[in-house]
Amino acid sequence: MAKKPLPRPTEAELAILRVLWRRGPSTVRRVTEELGAETGYTTALKLLQIMTEKGLVLRDDSERTHVFAAAAPEEATQRQLLDDLLERAFGGSAQTLVLRALAGRRPSPAELAELRRMLDSLEGK
Questions:
Q1: 93 inside domain
Q2: Does residue 81 share a domain with residue 65?
Q3: How far apart are CA 84 and CA 78, in angstroms?
Q4: Last residue of a domain, which of 55, 70, 85?
Q5: Residue 68 and residue 66: Cα distance in Å, rounded?
Q6: Between the CA of residue 64 and those of 27, 51, 67, 109, what are the distances in Å?
Q7: Which of 51, 69, 50, 47 is nearest to 59 (CA)?
Q8: Domain range for residue 66?
Q9: CATH number for the domain that contains residue 61
C-alpha cells in the first residue's frame, strides 16, 4: 500500500520544517529563537499546532514542554514538492525543469561537477 503524501507546506511551515530538520526535535521556544524576531512565540506555536493536525510534524507531549519533530525527512519532503512542481509547471518534463533551473542561476564549479557525476551515474544504469 502506497504511503499517503503529506500536504504541501506553506512558506511559513517550510521555515519551521527547516529548523526541525537542522536542529532535530525542538520546543516552540527553540523554533522561535531559530526563526528570529519576525516570528513570535504565539505564531510559531499556532503554526506547529496546525502542522501537527496536518501531519507535517509530530508532537511529543510526554513532558511538560512539548517537543515537535518533522514527520518526514527533508529529502522526502523536497522530493514530494519537486514532483508536484514538475507535474504542475513543467508537464512532467524533468529536462525542462533542469534547463530552466540552470538558465536562471549559474551553478558553481562544485555543483557542475556533482551534476556531471549524477548524469554519468544515470547513464551507467
A1: yes
A2: no
A3: 10
A4: 70
A5: 7
A6: 11, 20, 9, 49
A7: 69
A8: 11-70
A9: 1.10.10.10
* C-beta separation of 66 from 27 below 8 A: yes
Q: How many domains does the chain have?
A: 2
- Collapsing DSSP to helix, strand or coil, 66 comes out as coil
The predicted-structure confidence for 95-108, as pLDDT tens digits, reads as follows: 999 889 888 888 89
66 lies in the same domain as 20: yes
| 64 & 81 share domain | no
State pTM to two decimals.
0.82
List of residues 6+ apart from 22 with CB closer than 8 A: 34
C-alpha cell at 9: 507546506
58: which 3 cell numbers? 509530530
Tens digit of each residue's pLDDT (9 = 90 or more) over 10-31: 999 999 999 999 999 999 999 9
Contact 10, 18 (CB under 8 A): no
* Closest-CA residue to 48 (of 64, 65, 67): 67
Question: Exposed/middle/buried for 1, CB within 10 Å: 0-12, 13-18, 19+?
Answer: exposed
